[in-house]
Amino acid sequence: MQKRGHTADQILDVAQALVQSHGYNGFSYADVAQALRIRKPSIHHHFPAKADLGRALMARYRQRFGAALAEISASNARAAGKLQKYASLFRSVLQQDNRMCMCGMLAADFSTLPRPLRDSVRDFFGDNEDWLEGVLRLGRADRALAFDGPPRAMAVRILAAFEGAMLVARSFEDTSRFDTVARAVLGELKAT
Amino acid sequence: MQKRGHTADQILDVAQALVQSHGYNGFSYADVAQALRIRKPSIHHHFPAKADLGRALMARYRQRFGAALAEISASNARAAGKLQKYASLFRSVLQQDNRMCMCGMLAADFSTLPRPLRDSVRDFFGDNEDWLEGVLRLGRADRALAFDGPPRAMAVRILAAFEGAMLVARSFEDTSRFDTVARAVLGELKAT
DNA sequence: GTCTATAAGATGATAGAC
DNA sequence: GTCTATCATCTTATAGAC
How many domains does chain B have? Predict the structure, then answer.
């Protein structure tokens, strides 16, 4: 874990926001430079090529997201509560300027991404499904949750529902649309 | 319904495929020209600005999608069968070169789209939800389908699940991931 | 309806001064 | 670590010949 300068972090902050709202092909070094009131070459100094910036973006995002999931896991919430916290991770992203989940956005841009970035996006989704599967499995073992079929299948469904709900909600510029879907999906997992 | 020349249709075909795989900001007039082995100004002749091409693309897409939904409605399939046919509409898009639903893609690109295109994307989703709501309402009235809550809420959930399943499946380059989600979602609607 | 020629601006990137 | 200057290339778009 190497220490990064203040500017590099600011660049990542701005670039992430831009990716989440405009997509990987929808932002440029000029956009980042303007937002930070520095010049383009300063950005190249920290991230020589756009692919480098993309890789750093994903590395930080996955690390942070992983930490957020670990924090939820460590909390003393029960299974249903953990799933609700998971949902609010997505919700809070959407509420911030109608942003999309960064990996959902990159999944849309998938065919135009450099190979390492593609792998990272896939792994992110895999990590999410792994985590969800674990919560679902334990929740059902505890009789705190009830659902049919393998926990993995339900994990895949929940991730798909949340990503899709974000995507559609974006076009209505209406965060409550996400809430409606999330509540319904998680509501069906309640043990009887 | 005005007749369009052969070239204009070919341009729309290529542009649609490009939008569905690379996004609105991920393709250029040069890409379309190269695919059709014509020159860029020929494309400008049919669609002066990219926004014009975008509008024509959405108009045709919505018209075709609407016709497909009408055909399913007119079929003598029962409610569950209609929903399965609806799912296979999405599935067949994904299977073709790992393409995304055009409107799902444009929802990702939403913040960078010209205003008329944004409205069109929103309306497309609205039309889908309207259609699904109708099938769900009738299906439940017939006791062919069973689910809790208002038909509209379930319609919103199904659309979100399908869009999200496509998006995630894309990054795994695995169409069967979509099938798994679609089967599970529709399976839960079966009347007991 | 298609072409050649052309243009203004954006984009990703580098060299080299400070 | 940031800047000025510069670059080749791409992108959207227009003028005007055929």
Answer: 1
User: B104 and A167 in contact by Cβ < 8 A?
Assistant: yes
Cα distance between residue B111 and residue A27, in whole Å: 11
- What is the enclosing helix (H) or strand (E) of B51? helix B50-74
Does residue B103 form part of some domain?
Answer: yes
Q: Check CB contact under 8 Å for B188 and A184.
A: no
B1 assigned to some structural domain: no
In chain B, residues with a C-beta closer than 8 Å to the C-beta of A117 are none
**Tens-level pLDDT at each residue, chain B (192 residues):** 445 679 999 999 999 999 999 999 999 999 999 999 999 999 999 999 999 999 999 999 999 999 999 999 999 999 999 999 999 999 999 999 999 999 999 999 999 999 999 999 999 999 999 999 999 999 999 999 999 999 999 999 999 999 999 999 999 999 999 999 999 999 999 877
Domain housing B75: 6-187
Give the global pTM: 0.97
Quote the Cα angle for B154-B159-B160, to 5°.
95
The whole-angstrom distance between A123's CA and the closest CA on chain B is 9
Q: In Å, what is the CA distance from A103 to each residue of A122, B63, B97?
A: 9, 31, 20
Does residue A112 form part of some domain? yes
Q: What is the CATH number of the domain that holds B156?
A: 1.10.357.10
